[in-house]
Write a structure and sequence with these properties.
Strand order of the largest sheet: 1-2
Structural class: mainly alpha
Shape: globular
Radius of gyration: 17 Å
Number of strands: 2
Largest sheet: 2 strands, antiparallel
Number of domains: 1
Strand content: under 5%
Helix content: over 70%
Number of helices: 10
């Protein structure tokens, strides 16, 4: 039954990753939080395990998603090369920062972050991307990659929530922003997952079937299905209008944000 649950999570997360370029983390993290809670794992590490496992599965999801986007010729590989070094360094550092934060603190951070991104994305849904806006210098893109990497590892979301708006702001149309974001999710996921393994081992995590903060069975089950379904999500992304994608993306973020804010506040007896 446990494996079936992980396979179902993977199917949903993979489709979402391909559709929005968000790496699936926005779906994986809250569901894993619920599953791990029901399995009575230590409450102090449940959120960290959800984040670490999410990043590990995004490795597989990103490979599947970006291959589909690449066939469409939508990935801006020159932009990826500029962002990648910062993404790698930032993601490992972000895993370390997450390790020092409490589970409740992580929930509130993720919740408010998701709501903020949703608002920014929805507000600009009907505003066309300005082609006169161009990406900044290589050094500025490197710095942006570092910031995106840190935040992505802390939130376990693969980077799409930051990479897509960043690219939109600098004149990249939605479909290419989503495709490039999917590619950026790979270095974030690899570096972030290694970080959660390292810091989890230092914390001596006692939950069964884990390597550091990564749950092995959840990783395998989710990865198998997400690899398959991410390709379908990517195909649908190229059939929808940019405005529709932005609105759907912001709606998803709003639901996830409200959930985590509620969970975080309830831990403090405020909800």
């Amino acid at each position: 039954m446990e494996l079936i649950i992980y396979l179902m999570i993977g199917a949903i997360a993979g489709f979402t990753a391909g559709l929005f370029g968000v790496g699936g983390g926005l779906i994986i993290v809250p569901i894993l939080y619920i599953v791990f809670t029901q399995m009575h794992y230590d409450p102090s590490i449940i959120m960290h395990m959800a984040l670490g496992t999410s990043l590990a599965t995004i490795i597989v999801t990103s490979i599947s998603s970006v291959s589909a986007h690449h066939k469409k010729g939508a990935v801006l590989w020159n932009v990826f090369r500029n962002l990648a070094p910062g993404l790698v360094l930032g993601a490992f550092l972000g895993a370390g920062i997450a390790d020092y934060l409490s589970g409740q603190g992580l929930q509130l951070l993720i919740g408010f972050f998701a709501i903020w991104v949703a608002f920014k994305m929805f507000r600009g849904a009907n505003v066309p991307v300005n082609p006169n806006h161009h990406l900044p210098s290589m050094s500025m893109q490197l710095a942006a990659g570092g910031g995106i990497g840190i935040a992505s590892a802390i939130f376990g979301i693969g980077g799409g929530s930051l990479t897509v708006p960043y690219l939109n702001k600098h004149g990249v149309i939605m479909q290419k922003a989503v495709a490039t974001s999917a590619a950026c999710g790979l270095p974030i996921a690899i570096s972030g997952a290694l970080g959660f393994i390292w810091f989890g081992q230092q914390a001596d995590v006692s939950a069964p079937n884990t390597i550091g903060y990564i749950h092995v069975y959840a990783f395998l089950g989710i990865s198998i299905m997400s690899f398959i379904t991410a390709k379908f999500g990517a195909k649908v992304a190229h059939l929808l209008s940019p405005v529709m994608l932005k609105k759907c993306f912001s709606g998803l973020l709003t639901v996830v944000g409200c959930y985590f804010i509620y969970q975080g506040l309830s831990q403090f007896g405020l909800a």
